[in-house]
Specification:
heterodimer, A: mainly beta, Rieske Iron-sulfur Protein, four-stranded antiparallel β-sheet, three-stranded antiparallel β-sheet, about 50% strand, globular, B: alpha/beta, FAD/NAD(P)-binding domain, 6 domains, five-stranded parallel β-sheet, 28 helices, about 35% helix, iron (chain B), 4Fe-4S (chain B)
């Protein structure tokens, strides 16, 4: 496992998501400003389509989530677990910034 | 050998028969009796009171009160399609039309009534119908498809319901009444007059004091109805709704005592002249009275259930002591109510209010001392009904002057005593509802199921809701009218807050009026954010992906990328084709672009072309080419005006009377880009043949030789609804004004995702009220509404053109921030069907058959390519 440099911090707009390739896997990255960076699998486990980065950021009972653009399931940004159906998980990735670069920990 | 259970037979499975079964089960008598229920209709009990809802939904499902499964679960034998033709009261058996014989220990007749068809020559001609069962409605619907004009015979309560149904089917409707006024049983002459004028404003022609003498062949329509005054009316269909008669034929042939003018005679326990035989509902005659409403029928059902229970236990038996026939309803959108002696009586004192400006008439009848309310009639404003009914039923002495009762506002409507009956169908008091709320039932649906309030005719639902709200508030409980967990406001309130306080960003809206989370987040959710975005756009009409104001983060799935997302995550593209008119050059340009990007193309229902399968990163390039070819965005992704469909119109069509296409294009150009609570569709037809199907649109315009007729609040979709005729023979200029006002009023006051149809129905007063606002400027806001629409029209921008001019915006359309790291693309993402590209997702097409077709067509395509 290794940290992959995906982009510069400045190319992550605040309040929305972007998708990035991390060792062949599509990862959705969300920049929530002072609340930090989050990364989960870009593929919506409910449909198998890669688009979670394009979802709307929501706060559901205190938890930060992204709503899938297709059928609006909410996935927790911290854990990737779906609020409506906890058997659906968009697995989370470790993410950090170093010297203005955004790094995501690749999975084996 | 086991002892067999006593047998209970119920003939009739209408509303009252079903209510009796419910009472029986609640007393546990379904366990002690073997119960057989016979219904002659093909389906179990349904709500006959709300019959016209069938046309709103096109389905009988919402009307159903129960199901065969319920009966099975209760252990009751339900025999549908099984009329009972004979009763042997000595042998205690009944015989069905199918010839089967069933014995009974106790028998309940709930055979209801049948529509009275006056004995007029020709009353059995084709398309001469009645209005009582779902089958009758189906026949009316079928007849309406080939009818331009229809007549309802009978101007009573049921007749006006039938007229409403006919209107909804788009048939020019006449009502013919024998008496000199409408609703002669309940209303006095003045009230009848006002009701008549209100209904005529809605486009129904009312003919009073007319007796039909014959129905013969017509010259311009299928029938001609001739009247006693030598006048006549031509019509394609006729619905008889001139009252009901008790269905007592079975009792009659079985030697059960029948009243002189029909009806099965019953005593206070609802027992007939035959031993152990009861009759309940509209077939029963109690003290020479028939009760043609559902509430008294339900009372009889309860009396019989309690009587049967009392025979085998110590439980007390109730008696039927007559019933109040007061009624409140909305006929064709007009409030009508009658309480007690609503037509007055000798020596009565009275107070009367006649407000021509507001279209309200109220009259209260008092006893000769003037202290007690004996009757009331209300037209145009029902809001005092509960209070007056309570006063009438309780016979409390009127405090102060009776005239004050006429002027008291509606705000204390729910200010009833705990013993006051709120739901007369199920005898639910205010106290019952309050107790249920305090016990934890806070939602309408919960109250309906635990108290049964508002589950009969439904007329008391608004009052029940008020009582729920009041009780919650009084108990300091959280009652949440807000759109989501982040706001206690509904969309209308948020709109006003944004407008009055000039709020134009979500963070301010949330901090000032919402509920940021404990951590201070103002993220909101996928309900409040798009709603706020729509409100900001309706008010300011700024670029929806504006970064500075943060609007970009608020947009929902489709608005966020100005495209319609598809199941595989690609987008479809729909450029505007105003009025459905497109030049060959533009068609070619579009075809070339679709071919270059291998987009699946399909003509939409709104007369434009949809191109599917564009990836996120292709959207800007494709739009650049489209804009260069003269196209602009079609807003297919937004809750906004989609299309103005048109027919060919007078420029080419030999029947057209106005230029439908030209007008459709002008309309589309005026209202394009308007963000609204729900998507909007318009259509313009160039003549009454209505080829553009304008009556199924939010705004429908149909040409006449004098101008344009405007229809509003139609829609297709899951619950199709014909638009209501709003105004006739308008000039283009007036039409624009009306549409400006209607749309802005809708944008201002509608709920989130509320279509124009449900919005209009939700307005107190419905269509008539909307007319008063838009045509008569009842609220004095028309110039503001027009100004606001002018602002929207003046600040229109093609969002794609704006987007392409902003490089920072285009970064949003990079699918990946690091595209160079992409793995090799999946070559199997698409398949070809009928020479076009489809996503390779298994449930495309119709299951296995489609997949077989794919293989065959793939071969052909490959061969062609080779």
């Amino acid at each position: 496992m290794s940290w992959i440099n995906v982009c510069e911090e400045t190319s992550l707009p605040i309040g929305t998501g972007v998708a990035a390739w991390v060792a062949g896997k599509a990862v959705a990255i969300f920049n929530l400003g002072k609340d930090g960076l989050f990364a989960i699998d870009n593929v919506d486990p409910a449909t198998g389509v890669g688009l979670l980065a394009r979802g709307l950021i929501c706060e559901m009972e205190g938890e930060l989530c992204v709503a899938s653009p297709l059928y609006k399931q909410h996935y927790r940004l911290a854990t990737g677990v779906c609020i409506e159906d906890n058997s659906l998980i968009a697995s989370p990735f470790d993410i950090k910034t170093e010297q203005g670069q955004v790094l995501v920990l690749a999975k084996a | 050998m086991t002892v067999s259970k006593p047998k209970l037979v119920v003939v009739g499975n209408g509303m009252v028969g079903h209510h009796f079964i419910e009472q029986l089960c609640s007393l546990g008598l379904n366990k002690t009796f073997e119960v057989h229920v016979f219904g002659e209709e093909p389906r179990p009990a349904y709500d006959r009171v709300q019959l016209s809802k069938y046309f709103e939904t096109g389905s009988a499902d919402p009307l159903m009160l129960t199901s065969a499964q319920d009966y099975q679960d209760w252990g009751i034998n339900l025999h549908l399609n099984t009329p009972i033709t004979a009763i042997d009261i000595a042998a205690k058996t009944v015989t069905s039309a199918q010839g089967e014989c069933y014995s009974y220990t106790r028998l309940v007749l709930a055979t209801g009534s049948f529509p009275f068809v006056p004995p007029i020559q020709g009353n059995d001609r084709a398309q001469c119908l009645v209005y009582r069962t779902i089958e009758d409605l189906e026949a009316i619907q079928a007849a309406a498809q080939t009818s331009l004009v229809g007549v309802v015979v009978g101007g009573g309560l049921l007749g006006l319901e039938a007229a409403n149904a006919m209107m909804q089917l788009g048939v020019k409707t006449h009502v013919v009444e024998f008496a000199p006024q409408l609703m002669p049983v309940q209303l006095n002459d003045k009230a009848g007059e006002l009701l008549c004028s209100k209904i005529e404003q809605l486009g129904v022609s009312v003919h009073t004091s007319k007796a039909t003498t014959a129905i013969i062949d017509g010259e311009t329509a299928l029938h001609r109805m001739t009247f006693n005054d030598e006048s006549f009316l031509e019509t394609d269909m006729i619905v008889f709704s001139a009252g009901i008669r008790p269905q007592d034929a079975l009792a009659r042939v079985s030697n059960i005592s029948i009243g002189e003018r029909g009806g099965i005679e019953i005593d206070d326990h609802c027992l007939t002249s035959a031993p152990d035989v009861y009759a309940i509902g509209e077939c029963a005659l109690w003290q020479q009275k028939i009760f043609g409403l559902v509430a008294p029928g339900y009372q009889m059902a309860r009396v019989v259930a309690s009587h049967i229970a009392s025979l085998s236990s110590d439980s007390p038996s109730q008696s039927f002591t007559g019933a109040d026939m007061s009624t409140k309803l909305k006929l064709l959108g007009v409030d009508v109510a009658a309480i007690g002696a609503s037509r007055g009586f000798d020596n009565a004192q009275f107070v009367e209010l006649s407000d021509n400006q507001a279209g309200i008439y109220k009259k209260l009848w008092l006893d000769d001392s003037g202290k007690y309310l004996k009757g009331a009639v209300l037209i145009g404003d029902n809001s005092d009904y509960s209070r007056l009914l309570d006063m009438y039923l309780s016979q409390d002495e009127i405090a102060g002057s009776a005239v004050e009762l006429l002027l008291a506002g509606a705000e204390d409507e729910a200010d009833l005593k705990d013993t006051s009956i709120v739901c007369s169908c199920h005898q639910v008091t205010k106290g019952d509802i309050v107790d249920a709320v305090k016990a934890g039932s806070h939602k309408m649906a919960e109250i309906k199921s635990c108290t049964r309030a508002a589950s009969g005719c439904g007329g008391c639902a608004p009052l029940v809701q008020k009582i729920i709200d009041q009780t919650l508030q009084a108990a300091g409980l959280d009652f949440n009218a807000g759109i989501c967990a982040h706001f206690d406001h509904d969309r209308q309130a948020l709109y006003h807050l944004c407008q009055v306080e000039g709020i134009n960003d979500f963070d301010s809206l949330m901090r000032q009026h919402g509920k940021p989370s404990a951590s201070g987040h103002t993220y909101g959710c996928d309900i409040c954010k798009p709603a706020a975005a729509s409100i900001f756009a309706s008010l300011q009409n700024q670029y929806v992906l504006n970064q500075d104001s943060g609007h970009v983060q608020l947009q929902d799935t489709n608005d966020a990328y100005l495209g319609n997302i598809q199941k595989d995550g690609t987008y479809s593209i729909v450029p505007r084709v105003a009025g459905g008119e497109i030049t060959p050059a533009k068609l070619i340009a579009m075809g070339q672009i679709a071919q270059d990007y291998d987009l699946y193309t399909k003509i939409t229902g709104g007369q434009r072309i949809d191109m599917f399968g564009a990836t996120l990163s292709q959207l800007p390039e494709i739009w650049k080419k489209l804009i260069d070819a003269g196209f602009e965005t079609g807003h297919a992704y937004g809750k906004s005006l989609r299309t103005v469909k048109s027919c060919v119109g007078s420029t080419w069509c030999r029947y057209g009377v106005q230029d439908a296409v030209g007008f459709a294009i002008d309309l589309e150009n005026r209202y394009k880009g308007l963000r609204s609570p729900h998507k909007l569709k318009f259509a313009v037809s160039g003549c009454t043949r209505e080829c553009a199907e304008a009556q199924s649109k939010d705004i429908g315009v149909i040409a006449t030789d004098k101008g344009w007729n405007l229809y509003v609040a139609g829609n297709g979709g899951m619950r199709p609804r014909h638009g209501d005729l709003f105004a006739t023979d308008l000039s283009s200029e007036t039409l624009y004004k009306y549409i400006d006002r209607i749309l802005m009023f809708y944008v201002k006051t509608a709920d989130k995702l509320q279509r124009t149809s449900t919005w209009m129905d939700s307005l107190e007063g419905g269509l008539a009220y909307l007319k008063s606002v838009v045509i008569d400027d009842a609220l004095g806001i028309n110039s503001t509404l027009e100004q606001q629409m002018d602002l929207i029209a003046a600040t229109y921008q093609c969002e794609w053109k704006t987007s392409l001019e902003q490089p920072e915006f285009l970064a949003r359309f990079n699918e990946f921030v690091n595209p160079s790291d992409a793995p090799v693309a999946d070559a199997n993402a698409y398949q070809r069907i009928r020479e076009q590209r489809f996503p390779n997702i298994k449930d495309v097409g119709a299951g296995t058959i489609a997949i077989k077709d794919i293989t065959e067509q793939q071969t052909t395509t490959d061969e062609v390519l080779a």
